Amino acid sequence: MADSSIWWVLTGLAVAFELATGTFYLLMFAVGLAAAAIAAHLGMGLTAQLVIAAVVGGGAVIAWHLLRGKKMVGKNAEFNSDVNMDIGQTVQVDAWQADGTAKIKYRGASWTVQLQEGSASGTGSYAIEQVIGSRLIVKKL
């Protein structure tokens, strides 16, 4: 079997394992294996194929890790609208209690609402900024 065929089989196995496990890093590794297959098609030696597979695959893994890391910094699930569909939604507060909270009906359930620090109180519409358990932290719109 030709070197390029072996590289393509390894690429297919890496993609299959990625599909089974859901880790994107294996897909980046498969890119390196595909680069080695292309190097084999171009007639490069085994050493060059191995170096290309390592450099391209490893570089893709490192690039993905760095890119993913930058996007995830500071995204706590309590504040992240990608994780919690309630963040950014609007609620109506009709009255505040003496302890600075309010009881509202939201999505068919009873919720406790607390004002975000520095936000003005009063009746009206509020945006949900954070969800902590069954407590909504809101700010005035």
Description:
- The protein contains three helices and five strands; from the N terminus they run αααβββββ.
- It is of the alpha+beta class.
- The chain folds into two domains: 3-72, no CATH class; 90-140, Beta Barrel (OB fold (Dihydrolipoamide Acetyltransferase, E2P)), CATH 2.40.50.
- The chain has a five-stranded mixed sheet with strand order 1-4-5-3-2, with no helix packed on it.
- The longest helix has 27 residues, at 46-72.
- The protein is rod-shaped.
Features:
single chain; 141 residues; alpha+beta; OB fold (Dihydrolipoamide Acetyltransferase, E2P); 5-stranded mixed β-sheet; 3 helices; 45% helix; rod-shaped
Give a summary of the structure in a few sentences.
The protein is an alpha+beta fold. The chain has helices at residues 3-21, 24-41, 46-72, and strands at 90-93, 101-106, 109-115, 124-132, 135-140.
